[in-house]
Amino acid sequence: MSVAKKEYKRVTVKSLSEMKENGEKISMLTAYDYSMANIVDGAGIDVILVGDSASNVMAGHETTLPITLDQMIYHASSVIRAVKRALVVVDLPFGSYQSDPKEALRSAIRIMKESGAHGVKIEGGKEIKESVKKILHAGIPVMGHLGLTPQSIYKFGSYTVRAKEEEEAEKLVEDAILLEKMGCFAIVLEKIPADLARKVAESVSIPVIGIGAGNGVDGQVLVLHDLLGMTYEFNPRFLRRYMNLYEDMTKAISQYVDDVKSRDFPSDDEQY
Q: What is the DSSP letter of 5?
């Protein structure tokens, strides 16, 4: 059943809360640069995540761990300059918050001041609660992230579905409730069983946004490059490709090469 959408000139943390209350699903995508963010925002997305996945899709690293705080601020600043409507949330990168709550606060403040972002996202539950508290007490909106947390990939050992066992599932629910009590405005659940994700969404009053977490949550997020079919080698079950840009771009560039080599480009009409 479709739900009537309220028009928002500017999406805020309050807007997301209203969407959950009204049963309207929240749309969220990543973006890392001005040109892409301009398109994504213009298409009507609710939330843009400047994800540490930039480490993978923009820089070619195997994991999200190498990206630095300075690099995240660079990407976030580029996105902010393009956005007129969406709420922009920025990942705190690995090493910028885990060990020291004061360092976590300094990192979050730098992101907010130097990029103009609207909030930060942080991975983990009880184990990073002091960092979350510090950031929230400074008045900075925080989005949580539970389930598969890519910054902990070497701890997990793989990108398989998380919280399939009862003990881990119970901890995940407890962590979600804790994040809400502390004041987080939303939670991302990554790659967990759909029934568990639905239970979490029903257990908290803040929006729960899923990636590989089924349809029982309050919204969905995907990596933009995956949705557009630019990362052709990545094929998880949860991914729906809306384009095949890898193939289309390869054809276009190959045609350009052929046209230059054959002297077809530029034509008489394409020169001064």
A: P
- The residues, ordered by sequence, that sit 6+ positions from 20 with a Cβ below 8 Å of its Cβ are 26, 205, 206, 207, 218
Taking only the tens place, the pLDDT of each residue in 104-113 is 999 999 999 9
Q: Which residues are catalytic?
A: 190
**What 8-state DSSP symbol labels residue 139?**
T
- 40 vs 11: CA distance, rounded Å: 14
DSSP one-letter code for 238: T
The tally of domains found in the chain comes to 2
- CATH number of the domain at 171, please: 3.20.20.60
Q: Which domain holds residue 272?
A: 245-272
Tens of pLDDT along 94-142? Answer: 999 988 999 999 999 999 999 999 999 999 999 999 999 999 999 999 9
Both 141 and 68 in a single domain?
yes
- Tell which residue, 179, 227, 263, 272, has the closest CA to residue 49: 227
Specify if 5 maps to a domain. no
Q: Verify that 33 and 74 share a domain, yes or no.
A: yes
Looking at the fold, whether 79 and 188 belong to one and the same domain comes out as: yes
Element (H, E) at 120: strand 119-123
Q: Which of 268, 18, 266, 209 is nearest to 200 (CA)?
A: 209
57 and 255 in contact (C-beta within 8 Å)? no
Q: Which residues contact 91 (CB under 8 A, 6 or more apart)?
A: 49, 50, 51, 52, 64, 72, 120, 121, 122
